[in-house]
Amino acid sequence: MPQIPHAQVTTTTQISVINESTILTDSEVTPVVVALQQQVTNDFRPVWGIDAELTMIPQGQQPPTGTWWLAILDDSDQAGALGYHDLTPDGLPIGKVFAGSDLKAGTSWTVTASHELLEMLADPNVNLSVMVQNDNTTGTLYAYEVCDACEDDSFGYQINNVLMSDFVYPTWFENFRTQGSTQFDRMNKIQGPLQLLTNGYIGVFDVTAGTGWQQQTAEKTPTNLRHRGHVGSRRERRAVPRTQWVTTLPLRKLHSNAQTYRQHLQTIMRRREAA
């Protein structure tokens, strides 16, 4: 097997994993956080030079100030209702995992959690891209997203019986590489630079056309709603000027909104049972 490229510099980020989902208990989320920590430190850090220390924040508790957030939520509607927006109250990166949407779609929320975490670490400001220049006046920008190309659950792998997302190596963005010359992703499924696996996609920006960020898929045309991106997703944020990003509400307000939201859901359930 070709030698795996190793990053030389390691930076460590503190990340709070916040469970605000109404369908997942803290006891269900905690072992996933343990698996995510192992993936970051054992698999991601050696090739990307980026490490993180994850802390599980039980429902109703406050994460430490100055940490990045990975919020486990039901769906984008709940995220908006609670007040989880584009940045933490401290103006730091935030990733969102819509566990309810995954369960409805029949996909793994743990793969999504892995996906969002690794992409947040690789490009926390959602503004990095790679330029492939075709000639003097034309070229294409490729979004610096490390899981999109191989994001399908079928390409994931297990850590402690928890399904994690596959991810690309820095070599995936280097178009001078030849087929099979090196390893392009963790599971060694990708054989060449900028290759998309089945159900994979990547954001592209034609610098000449000026049409903004578009999704390029392995199938050439979008095959499911996941390619559109949820409200508040990284794909949406990449297309929105940073000056228009919205800061998440203060923690006290988030907790108050979460309590109100759960009470509202309970009222709906009681009405359905009584009908």
Task: Give a quick rundown of the structure.
The chain has one domain (11-274). The chain is built from 6 helices and 10 strands.
Present the secondary structure layout:
Blueprint: E1 11-19, H1 26-48, E2 50-57, E3 68-73, H2 76-82, E4 94-98, H3 99-105, H4 109-122, E5 129-133, E6 139-143, E7 157-159, E8 162-164, E9 201-206, E10 213-217, H5 234-239, H6 251-274
Parallel strand pairs: 1-2, 1-3, 3-4
Antiparallel strand pairs: 5-6, 6-9, 7-8, 9-10
Counted up, domains total: 1
Low-confidence stretches: none
This entry's quaternary arrangement is single chain
Strand adjacency order, main sheet: 2-1-3-4
- Structural class designation: alpha/beta
The proportion of residues forming helix, as a percent range, comes to 25-40%
What is the mean predicted local confidence, pLDDT? 90
Secondary-structure element pattern, one letter each = EHEEHEHHEEEEEEHH
Sheet-strand content, in percent, reads: 15-25%
Backbone shape? globular
How many helices does DSSP assign? 6
Largest sheet: 4 strands, parallel
* Number of DSSP strand runs: 10
Cα Rg: 19 Å
How far is the first residue's CA from the last residue's CA?
A: 63 Å
Question: How does this model look, in words?
Answer:
It is a single chain. By secondary structure, this protein is α/β, with parallel strands linked by helices. It has one domain. The protein contains 6 helices and 10 strands, in the order E-H-E-E-H-E-H-H-E-E-E-E-E-E-H-H. The protein has helices spanning 26-48, 76-82, 99-105, 109-122, 234-239, 251-274, and strands at 11-19, 50-57, 68-73, 94-98, 129-133, 139-143, 157-159, 162-164, 201-206, 213-217. The strands form 3 sheets. The protein has a 4-stranded parallel β-sheet. Strands 5-6-9-10 form a 4-stranded antiparallel β-sheet. Strands 7-8 form a two-stranded antiparallel sheet. Helix 2 (76-82) links the parallel strand 3 (68-73) and strand 4. It is globular, with a radius of gyration of 19 Å. The mean pLDDT is 90.
